[in-house]
Every structure is written in C-alpha cells, then in structure tokens.
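Feature request, filed as a ticket because there's no other form

It would be nice if the structure record came with a short human-readable summary line next to the tokens. Right now we just get the raw output. Example of a typical job, pasted below so the devs can see what we mean:
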Amino acid sequence: MLRRVFAENGRAHIRGYIFAGICLVTVALSTSYVAYIMKSFIDQAFAAGNAENVWLICLSIFVAFSLRGFASYGQAVALSRVSNNIIATYQRRVAAHLMKLSVEFFNSRRSAQVVAQINQNITGVREVLNLTITSTTRDILSLISLVGVMFYQDFVLAFIALVFAPPMLFGLQRLARELRHANSEGVKITGRVFGAFQETIQGISIVKAFTMERQLEKNLDEVIRAAESRSNQIVRLSERNGPMVETFAGAAVASVIGYAAYRTIYHNVPPGAFFSFITALLMAYDPARRLTKIQVQMQRAANNAKMLYALLDSEPNQPDAPSAPKLEVSGGKVEFREVSFGYGEQHVLNKVSFTAERGQTTALVGPSGAGKSTLATLLLRFFDTAEGGIFVDDQNIASVTKRSLREKIAYVSQQPYLFEGTIGENIRLGRPGATTGEIEEAARLAYAHDFILEQPQGYDTPLGENGITLSGGQRQRLSIARAILRNAPILLLDEATSSLDVESEAIVQKALEAAMAGRTVIVIAHRFSTIRNADKIVVMNNGRAVEEGTHQSLSQKDGGVYSRLNELHSFSA
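Raw output as currently delivered:
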C-alpha cells in the first residue's frame, strides 16, 4: 500500500517534499543543538564563570530556536499545499471513475455511504504521505540526533534510558493490530449515519405525512449510538498508548535522574554533562511519543487508503469492447429481438420482440411489474440483456460504445432530476455546447419559457435541491427542454406524465408533442392522453409482449389485455 501511494504521488510532489524535508531536517538539527550546547552553557556559566562565552552560547540558542520556528512554518505550509493537491487529485480520480461504473454498482450501495467512505478514505492517502514524511524526516532524525547527544554525553545514562524501549514497542505492536479492525468498521458505521440522515432529509414530506418522526428518530438514535460506541472504542485503542508510553518514559527518567544524582553526590561528577543529557532526554520525549503513535496512525491511514483503492480498482461490469465502434444513426429504428433479462434469480423479461419504427411513436403499456421500465434501462444499456439483442438501425447496441449510444437518446424519466446550478445550466446539460438562444428555444418548445421568466433571475435563477422550489410540472418541463436541446434521433419517455395533475399534464403533453416531432419515440405510459395517438402500442404482461397494434384495433379485441386495461382506465407503471 505504501509503495503504491508513493509511486502515484511522490514524483508529482517531489519539490514540495524536498523543501519540507529540508525544513524538517533544520527542525531536527536545531533541536539537537540546543540539547548539545547545554553542557558548555552549564560548565561555562556555573563552573568557570566565563560571561563572554555564556553570551555567545545564549545567542546561538536564540538563533537555533528562530531557525526551528521558521523551518516549522515552512514545512507546515509546504505539506499543506501538497496535501490539498493530493485530496483534489484523488477527488477528480474518484469522480471520473464513478462516471465509468454501471448503474448496477450504485443500485447496490447507498449514496451517502459511498460519499462518506470516499471523504474519509481520501484523507487516508494524504495522512500516509504526511505521516511518512514528518516521522522519517523530523521525528526519526530528531530522535537519532538526540540519542546521539545522550550517548556522547554519558553512555551509561543513555543505556539506562533505552533499556525500557523494547517492551514498550512490543505493546504498541499488539495495539496496532487491534486498531486495524476497529477503524475499518468505524468507516462503515459512519457511512450508515450519513445514509440515514440523507434518507430522512430527502423523504421529510413522507416522514411528516405518515407521522414517522418517532420511529425514524429511534432508528437514527440506534445508528448514532452504534457509531458513537465504535468511535469510543477507536479512541480507547488509539489513546491506550498514552499511559503505556508515559509509564515507560517516567521509569526511564526516574532511573536516569536517580543514577545521575548518585554519581554527583558520591563521586563529585560535574553537572554539565548531566544537564546536557537530561535536556536531550526530555527533548527526545516528544518525537519518541509521536513515533510510538505512528504505527497506530499509519494503520488507520493505510486502511483508509486500501478502501479507496478498492473503489478505484473496481472494474466496470459493462466495459466497452476495446475496438467497439461508435453508434451511427441514420433513421433511428429500434428493434428488440428475443430479449430476455432478469435481476439475479428474478426473471423480468422473456423473449420480448417488437420494432419501434423510425420517426414513429411506439407506446409500451401493461400492468405494474410487466417489464416496461426494464426495457428502457436495457435500451440505455444500464444493464445488458441475458439473451437476445437490441438493435438501432441494425447495429447491436451491445457492440457499440455506451457513450455513443446514449448520445443518440434523449431520456425523460418519471421523476425529473435537476442538478445544482441555475435553470439555464440545467437545460444546457442536454447539450453542453448549446448557445443561450438554443436554450431559450428549447424552453419555448417545452412550454417552460414563460414560467422561467417569472423566476427572480430568469434563466439565471439558482435551483434548490432537485428544484424543490418548482412544481412537479415545471420540473418535468425543464426535463423535457433538456431532452429537446439534446436533439437526439431517439426519444425515450418513461412515465413522463404519471405524477402530474390534469392541468400540468395537459401543458406537459403539449411539450412532449413538440419533443416527439421527427423522432423515433418509445413511450412508457398508462394514460390515454399519452398513448391514444401512438403509431403502435405494445402490450406487456408478465415479462412478455402479448399484443401489438393501434389504440383502435387493440380496444376492439375482445378478451385482450389492452381491452381490459382500457375498460378499467388503469395503465400503471
């Protein structure tokens, strides 16, 4: 894991790390110098009484502290700049990779959990690099140089101080192993907390309408308690090294002071070397304490980095073939040939065949669960067929690139989704290179231009989350304007008017008629207003295409599925 992190980031930030490394070396050496010079200071000031040398020593100590302060500032700024760039780089990589993953990947995961894990795991990569740089350059070098000062001043005292290190390191090793599993579980539980909050916020109207507040509050409380318990466990494990290190450090310092006092009292050993030694020992405590935590911190950071790379290494389960050509559409005829499909063990479609002729409207109708919306997801290649194939102008969509396929389809869903940004920016998503005039023309065709101008800033009006400040009909008309602007030869409508009131439906229906003009249209619907004038109606039932014809011919077919649904006036999703 460490090799991969450094291989991907080391070269790109080599200058920043070199500068930070120089600063950290300065910090380490200036710290060691202060400990080293204490022997001369004590002997010159208290033994020899040499004032001139004392002033020079004091000046050198001032210079050492100043250097350490500026060097600390320099390394902090340099590492922060590198860290921020690393986070931004991985965020871009993750964003690009998520765009390559299939719908199936997102269907099996909660969005808030994915976001929470990405956020925590990216910081893990940054911490791996920063901990490695600061610990190896500053802390290890400081510790080595200070231990060198200790041995130089008094070999016996240094040996006494270091004899406590092996058992302390053994204890820290065991602690790191326990912490690894706790950190992994902590990330997952945090993702559950984010997910629970997101669901509650997004569904707040349903929560209040069904008086679900107490139940959801109870559910949230259970998840939060689990996260709190796991966080407390991680803190207990992380901070357990504190009493361990302090105990061993206290034993070492007490032993050194006791032995030094014994020599001074009974053998008249000059105090200069002891003061220099004890200064080095006390100064070595901070880098030693940080290094005792490094394994625990590195385990946590490496675990987060491992989870991030697991996401980045996940392969799209619908990859394009290496030499897949782009889809070329001349007319837009869509054919379903013996298409079968299922979600796991659940079979949804069974040998479905029909043709949506170029420039005509083909409606898919049938009872709920008949497989209508699944046909739409297969046409968009959110999933691949289990058997059979889907052809556009006699080209199998499984053999062309998904991007070129979707560029030829304008999609209007039952629940229109609007993104962060302005009204105009949301329409422009249909075709990013569109001009302002083209956006306004698409809005006019979608019967959206007038209500857009009524907004506080017109086309520049920022939208709330998923356009919450707009009505359902207004959101749907913006979605249709986006589809019109795309100017694709195939238009796919999935229950585009099912959730609207009669007045809104009438306006949206006019917008749909404008969007349908000159295109191959496949519409999934259950209302007469949408399908009555369709050139062809395909009736789905139990995963099969059981009837095909026009509204008039199918209505007159006694005992038919369409005739029965027509009588009931019930065409549901």
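Something like this underneath would help us a lot:
The CA atoms of residues 66 and 472 lie 65 Å apart.
Residues 51-100 form the longest helix (50 residues).
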